Model the fold of this input.
Amino acid sequence: MLSGKRVVLGVTGSIACYKALDLASKLTQAGALVDTIMTRGATQFVTPLAFRSLTHRPVVTDAFDADSEYAVEHVELARQAEVIVVAPATVHTIAKLAMGMADDPLTTTVVASRAPLMVAPAMDADMFEHPATQENLGRLRQRGAVIAGPGQGRLASGLTGWGRLLETPELLGYIAHTLGRNGDLSGRTVVVSAGGTAEPIDPVRVITNHSSGKMGYAVAEAARDRGARVVLVSAAKGLPNPPLVEVVPVSTAQQMCDAVLARTEEADALIMAAAVADYRPLTTADQKIKKSDDDLSIQLAKTVDILATARGDFVRVGFAAESENLVANAAAKVTSKSLDLIAANDITSEGSGFGTDTNRVTLIDRDMNVEELPLLTKYEVGNRILDRVARLFRD
Ligand code: CTP
Done:
C-alpha cells in the first residue's frame, strides 16, 4: 500500500517527536518516499539529521533556504505529495491549519497542496479538551482531513488522559486509510469474519482450532485501504484492532452467526475468513467438569453454517482450508454454499495456513474458473480477493 508513495511528514514541536522518528523509519521500510518538514519547535526536540538518516531524503526546516534541492519548496513538495501527515500535531499547528495560515514551510505546504491530510494530535489532555482545539479539529475534519487520535494514557506532564500520539502501527493504518479513501471500494460496506470460534465445554474449557485470524484481519485492512467501511466480526484472540475498522468481538459460532446476519443487512460484501466450528458441545456444563477414573464422552451438536445461511443482495466470498483434493473440495463448497468466490488454501503447503503472514490460495469463482495465486502476504491475498469483489460490484 505504501510502496512508492510520496509522503510528506510534518513534525511539530512536541515531546512525541521521538515517535515520529519511528514512524518515518517504518514508512521508509514500507517503501514510501518520506519528505520531512520540521517546524522550529520540532527541531528543539529532535534533529533534522535524525530524520534525514532514517528517510535518506532532505529535511526541510527553513522556508527561505536558498540552497534547498526543492526549487520552491512548498510548491514542489505540495505538488508531489500523495498524502500529508502531521505527526505529532501541536495545538498551535492545528490552530494554524484550521485557519488556513501559511507562516512556515509545513503550513505553507499544506495550504499549497491538494493531497489528503492526516493530523495526529499530541498534547496535554487539558489542551486537547479546550473548546478551541475541539473546534479547530472539527473544522479540519469538516474540510476532509483525517484526525488520527489522540490516544488515552499517561502524558509527558505526568497526568493521565487524552492527548497521547498514537503508536506507529496505528498511525500507519490511518495513513493507509487516508491514501485509499477514494479507492475502488469507497462507499461500500464490507463485512469480514476472522479467527477460530471457541465452543465452551464448561467454564474453563473450549473446543477451538488453530486459526490465528491473521487472514481475516489482512482482508479487513486491505478493504479499509481501498476506501470501504469495514465491519470485522472477530473470534481472534490477541490481535490488535486494526485502526478505522469496526471490530465486533464474538466467541462462539452462534455469536458469530448472529453478528454476521445482523451486519450483512447493511453490507455490499461478506467475506468469511473465519474458521467456524462445525460442531459444538450439545450442552455446556455450569461448573468445571471434575476428573474421574472413567473416559469422558462429549456429545456434539452441529452448528449453523453461517455462509450458507447469510443470503441477500451482497457478494459472498468463502475460504476453504483443505488438506487434500483442494480444488474439488473447494469447488463443491462454491456450489453448496452458492458463493460468488472461494479462496482455497492447502494448509499443508509451506508458508500457508495457520499463524503465518503469508498464504498461497487458489481462487474459484461461481463459473468454476480456477486461478492459482503464488505465495503472497495475507494483505496481498486480501487485495487479490478484493480485486474480484470490486469487479463483481462493477458487473
Ligand atoms: N463456514 C461458515 N459456517 C460454518 C462453517 C464454515 O460460515 N459453520 C464458512 C467458513 O467461514 C468458510 C467456508 O464456510 O468461509 C468453508 O469453511 P470450511 O471449514 O472450509 O468448510 P465446511 O463447510 O465447514 O466443510 P468441511 O469442514 O467439511 O471442509
